[in-house]
User: Fold this.
Amino acid sequence: MGQAILRCRLPVIFLKPISPRMASVFKDVRLRALKEMPLAFSSTYAKESEFPEAEWVRRSERWRGDEAILYLAFDNQDEKAACGMVACYADEEGNVARGHVISMWVDPKYRRAGVGKLLMEGLKNWARSRGLRGLKLMVTSVNQGAIDFYQRMGFVMSGKTGPYENDPAVFEHEMVLALEE
Assistant:
């Protein structure tokens, strides 16, 4: 679970797997994401902004291991402010082991600069190293930018949809990606 480096159009972006010492950075980026894109996540800013610091440390511990990962993206290895995040956990549906992608977000200043691609490549590598056969995610119907991004990354609509729990006027699409071995 080392760090990945990819040259983008911006300065060098580094991916780092979450650790408990990064709990405050995780809290900051997660709350920015929930505030900036309230219809993109299953939780809300109002709910998570009330979490005590111990909850952020606990989450940081939970998202680092064999069954789950959370990557933070940093510009020039600045560990004080992340410019993106993504998480994934191993999930078995039927006889197919896949990674379930959640909490994907890139700071608006860094969008379309390779940060999202780097985050997704990090997840693909993590999933392959655990023998997972693919990735899946849910994306809200009102988040066309995310849908377009996931399609550029090779995801396709599975045909499964469901209601979005935070707004009855919005629904979610499942998207899937097969991973080559």
Remarks:
- Strands lie at 4-6, 13-17, 68-75, 82-93, 96-106, 134-140, 156-163, 171-178.
- The helical segments are 23-36, 45-48, 53-62, 115-129, 144-152.
- The radius of gyration is 16 Å.
